[in-house]
Amino acid sequence: MENKYLILLYYCYTPIEDPEQFRIDHHLYCIENNIRGRIIVASEGLNGTVSGLREDCEKYMADLKADSRFSKIDFKVEESPTHGFAKLHVRVKPEIVHSSLRHIDPNQRTGIHLEPSEFKKIKDDEDVVIVDVRSNYEHHVGKFKNAVTLDIENFRDFPDKVSELEKYKGKKIVTYCTGGIKCEKASAYLLEQGFENVYQLHGGIIKYGIEEGGEDFEGKCYVFDNRVIANINKVNPVVISECHICHTKTDRMVNCANPVCNLHVPICEDCGWKMEGACSEACKEHPEKRPYDGTGYYQKESNGYNPYKGLNRNKKTALPSDINQLHVS
């Protein structure tokens, strides 16, 4: 199948004076340019994962970069045979990635950026410690070989786990995440806590896979689009995650068929059918259990999805029909 679509992952820490007005304008722009995905707008910047036809995505990237606020955005670009998203959501939030580190401005201080080629050269050095700052469900399905992982359910829990890294203070700390955004604040926080040699993998796992073939990334990378997981390692791939039911090796991610549970875990194909998509016997017998189709992915009901719905929550804005009236900012 031909890869007519692109999936873009990006972020930019930059001041946005009126996040709500930006949200409205950007939402309109995406509709008119057939861009779908999830975009977060905050006073501290922009964070998005979007998809669209190749020409639409190329226009989207060019238009964003033409805005001086976003000229330094580093897009991670992957090809796809289909849209990565069924809908468009542009939302205003207090932060572009939920953390407990709102006082940190990565534009003022953050860990030294390592390009994928530089990371590849030093990742196995004895004085280097690679730290995964993602959540449990992400690093359980894939991580760098010998990486230090932290038992966190959400990124906002990261500061509570930094004490576990104290024994590495004399070494070079290299943080990594999916696309780089979490590392901007995580590495800055490590510096704030007295760590001196702090680095971060620029562009995260995705960029490393694109530019360096993903060598020594074990398992798959959890992603926040309809793919759920992405192949990263084209050099020496292995599967590290285990089936939640039988503990055989599998990287097949499933949402529990019981919507009340909805646990997101690896479940092999055999156990998927045996358990009818449920993660436990109790969930299998739950009266609200969803029909299992072999994928473990449950598309939310569209209910006549209207991309304009909710657009004008706080302001009166006309919906222009001429694309020339729309602006990224």
UniProtKB/TrEMBL annotation:
Xref: HAMAP family: TrhO
Enzyme class, spelled out: oxidoreductase
Catalysed reaction, written as an equation: uridine(34) in tRNA + AH2 + O2 = 5-hydroxyuridine(34) in tRNA + A + H2O
Organism: Shiella aurantiaca
Gene3D superfamilies: 3.30.70.100, Rhodanese-like domain
Domain Rhodanese stretches: 124-217
Keywords for the protein's UniProt record, in alphabetical order: Oxidoreductase, tRNA processing
SUPFAM superfamilies according to UniProt: Rhodanese/Cell cycle control phosphatase
SMART domains, per the entry: RHOD (SM00450)
Protein name, entry field: tRNA uridine(34) hydroxylase
Name of one Pfam family that matches: Rhodanese_C
Biological role stated in the UniProt entry: Catalyzes oxygen-dependent 5-hydroxyuridine (ho5U) modification at position 34 in tRNAs.
Oxidoreductase as UniProt keyword: yes
Family membership noted in the UniProt record: Belongs to the TrhO family.
EC number, UniProt record: 1.14.-.-
